[in-house]
Amino acid sequence: MNYVDLANFAAKAAASKKAIRMVLMDLRGMSDLCDYQLICSGENARQTLAIAESIERSVRTEFRVKPSAIEGKTNGNWILMDYGPVNIHIFYDYLRDFYALEQLWPKAKFIDLKSV
Length: 116
Hints:
The protein is an alpha+beta fold. Helix content is 34%, strand content 28%. The two termini are 20 Å apart.
């Protein structure tokens, strides 16, 4: 399985639910947690949960893969979906800047999501 394709596909599923501020980071060789990290935001709990459900459903259908874990669906403030080499973070937009995950890896490459 090509994990960057999975991450790009997840980004398209997130975009279908109007996720904002999406970035895809290439963390290969920089993180022990994952190779790719998709980060996006929503305006409220209803939207963040809809984004997570869209990603889960779409990835399961296209790649026949379920996340090994999903955290944060109870309140929707920060949802983490763990697909092994791909981690997906869905934040309330106002919380995203507080945690600033993009800044934890300043040398990470950002993968272009313009086609999403």
